[in-house]
Amino acid sequence: MAAGFTIRASLFHTPAPDTLEHRELQLVTVDETGRIESVVPDDPGHDRTVPVGVDIDLGPDTVLLPGLIDTHIHAPQWPQLATGLDLALEDWLFAHTFPLEARYVDVAFAERVWESMVPSLLAAGTTTAVYHASIHEPATTALAAACHRHGQRAFVGRVAMDHPEGTPEWYRDADAATAVERSARSVDAITALTGRAGLVRPIITPRFIPACTDAALAGLGELSAATGTLVQTHCSESDWEHGHVLERHEMTDAASLDRFGLVGDHTVLAHATHLTDADRTRLVERGAGVAHCPLSNAYFANAVFPARASIDAGLRVGLGTDIAGGADGAVLAQCGHAVTSSRLLDSGVDVSRDPVGRGVPGSRIDIVTAFWMATAGGADLLGLPVGLLAPGRRFDAIAVDLDGLGIWDEVDDAALVFEKIVRQADHSSIRRVWVDGVDVTPASTARRTASGTGSD
Fold this sequence. Notes:
By secondary structure, this protein is an alpha/beta fold. It is built from 14 helices and 18 strands. Strand 1 and strand 2 form a beta hairpin.
């Protein structure tokens, strides 16, 4: 449990997709449970002296942001980050990914990876992570334990995959019954760590339709309904996946997942670049949403996800790195990639076409919308009371040092400072990390910032 405290800092957050709030010198009070109790302006008369009752003063050169939410990570792929991305998705999976994921039968190897990955992501500001693990129950439970130990908020899912044509014989569940049974045991094991409402929760994870038999998909849908456990999977990621489902089930990926009971409130569907208008309407009605992975989409999706149109349609949208299909594991970097991909969709890229018909006008988003997806939007997708620095929310936050970000007081207003933070800050700029009111700053980050501006 957190100890109650008050922190003094200037802060930025994004309560709506097109709304940036900047609050100078606020007093943020967090209660003993990790809940934000109040956010009020500091007395201007205090200047930079630390008033009585303030436990942490971030100083003038460090700002407070909500913790970052990564809604799509393939945890076993951490060792292959930034490699093999010259291949098509289906080739990449069989050549690189499945052989690597099969290694997680070795729990010692898995634990070494988790001990590298979880602190690294926390250091980059990822306070909430949604993980695909491997098919192995012990490795999956070990990932949940690592998140719990390091204090990262997480959803962890044992990957179910049993299709004899969509998976290699040496890396799959033996059959549908095995896939469902092992997933059910994994749900129980993770729940036993911190309880159903704990910091780390299970999530039912059919890899995607090409990797699962219909019997497995149906059984996993029934498991979700019986246990009240959220679902994550891939949906219409690429021409290959989208086409596979159309041919196999004679309907779209979203429609097929829905008929198996795998689309419900807060379901996380990764990529979804090939959604139809009817698909989007279906997902909005179900309360499901999309983990938008802009960098990974550039490599594997054969399309750009229409973030602007989807948000305007009422679809829940969060941001994902898609480690390792995305070559950068930092959520802040994905904000920039999201803006770039929206610009490409808006203007088009094929110069052989007339400029008037080359792109999809109205598709652009800005850095505020991108950051909203990485915080409040991701929180809404997952149904979590985080993503904003506001009373009633859990205190998941990061302290970012402005030094080295090229801030010019004579030139930059608050909006420009915010854009420079999101576009340029990286793990070296992140001084402290809190989850649920607890300081979970990794030891390496704490050593790096020992002489920084923050003080207790």
